[in-house]
Design goal:
Elements lengths: L1 E7 L6 H15 L3 E5 L13 E2 L6 H8 L3 H10 L4 H20 L8 E5 L5 H4 L3 H11 L2 E10 L6 H18 L3 E6 L1 H5 L2 H10 L6 H16 L3 H11 L5 H14 L4 E3 L5 H15 L5 H7 L5
Parallel strand pairs: 1-4, 1-5, 2-3, 2-4, 5-6, 6-7
The structure holds guanosine-5'-triphosphate (GTP) and magnesium ion.
Keywords: GTP-binding, Hydrolase, Membrane, Nucleotide-binding, Transmembrane, Transmembrane helix
Family: Belongs to the GPN-loop GTPase family.
GO molecular function, one term: GTPase activity
């Protein structure tokens, strides 16, 4: 049994930074983790990559040799993920690492692989390649979950926030995977200048940064588990009356699914990464079978 998380989300939402922090966290706590790069446009990584799609194809080569633009080039590159070679290489590498861990009877034989995906939403909503890739992983006994990133700055504008919720919902429906939403860059929330000034205006006592953070988080909590009524009133306030019916339908859609909720991530805090990881572990049932395997193959038994 293998485990994988698929890191997806809009451009600049913090996917690569998360992967880097997660890698460091796992190194610190002695947990095995392997990064697989599926981004043909990636330039550099701050963590070691076990398998890299760029060894097969890179965006620069496609643009240069086929004369394609960056977006068409990306779609072309993504088609390569269907190539048996890459699939074989990815799964082959992972199986090898798994076997080494298994034979030396590590406690950490429970392996988790991160598949770091490109940002453009069209790549999983418009083409079936990612879904096929995930299906293949599942057939090879991988528990896979999607980890969708949304920048916390989106929360400052309810129209952006609702579009982020819709994109997340779309990924859920397209990929049909256990799904976790992350509200990234929460450190920026604590520093938000306008909220600081507003709160200070109410009472200078609130200047204390811990209190500020608490107030900010309280204000944010409504976005972590969005409620239809709150979303609707904010949308209606911001948009022209003719959009009233559309706003109602959108807010109800988020509410009906009751699946769009967010886990805050503040990368400055180790506990926050641990918290996110524990949700992911729970989602993919990480390690549930590992104890049994360790016992089965323990030479002292
Ligand atoms: N303050 C803060 N900045 C962050 C955080 N995570 C990412 N950033 C910044 O946000 C920018 C984008 O982060 P990336 O990790 O490259 O985002 P990405 O989703 O991988 O972006 P693409 O691969 O281009 O789609 C960078 O300038 C990061 O330094 C965070 O938790 N806090
Ligand atoms: Mg990136």
């Amino acid at each position: 049994m293998g485990y994988a998380q698929l890191v997806i989300g809009p451009a600049g939402s913090g996917k690569s930074t998360y992967c880097s922090s997660l890698y460091q966290h796992c190194e610190t706590v002695g947990r095995t983790i392997h990064m697989v790069n599926l981004d043909p446009a990636a330039e550099h990584f701050s963590y070691p990559v076990s398998t890299d799609i760029r060894e097969l194809i890179s965006l620069d080569d496609v643009m240069e040799e086929l004369g394609m633009g960056p977006n068409g080039g990306l779609i072309y590159c993504m088609d390569c993920m269907e190539y048996p070679l890459f699939l074989k290489k990815t799964i082959g590498t992972l199986k090898t690492i798994w076997m080494i861990g298994w034979m030396s009877n590590w406690r950490v034989i429970w392996m988790m692989t991160i598949l770091c995906l490109i940002a453009q939403i069209e790549l999983f909503t418009h083409v079936p390649v990612l879904r096929n890739f995930v299906e293949h992983l599942k057939r090879k006994n991988f528990n896979v979950c999607a980890v969708y990133f949304l920048d916390s700055q989106f929360v400052s504008d309810v129209t952006k926030y609702i579009s982020g919720c819709m994109a997340s919902l779309s990924a859920m429906i397209q990929l049909e995977l256990p799904h976790i939403n992350i509200l990234s860059k929460m450190d920026l929330v604590a520093n938000k200048k306008d909220v600081e000034e507003y709160v200070y205006f109410i009472s200078p006592l609130f200047k204390d940064s811990t209190i500020l953070l608490c107030i900010n988080l309280l204000m944010f909590s409504r976005y972590l588990n969005p409620e239809a009524q709150v979303l609707l009133s904010q949308l209606n306030r911001q948009m022209a009356p003719k959009f009233g019916k559309l706003n109602k339908s959108l807010a109800e859609l988020v509410d009906d699914y009751s699946m769009v909720n967010f886990i805050p991530l503040d990368l400055r805090k180790e506990s926050s990464i641990q918290y996110v990881l524990s949700h992911i572990d729970n989602c993919i049932q990480y390690g549930e079978d590992a104890d049994v395997k360790v016992r089965d193959f323990d030479p002292e038994d």
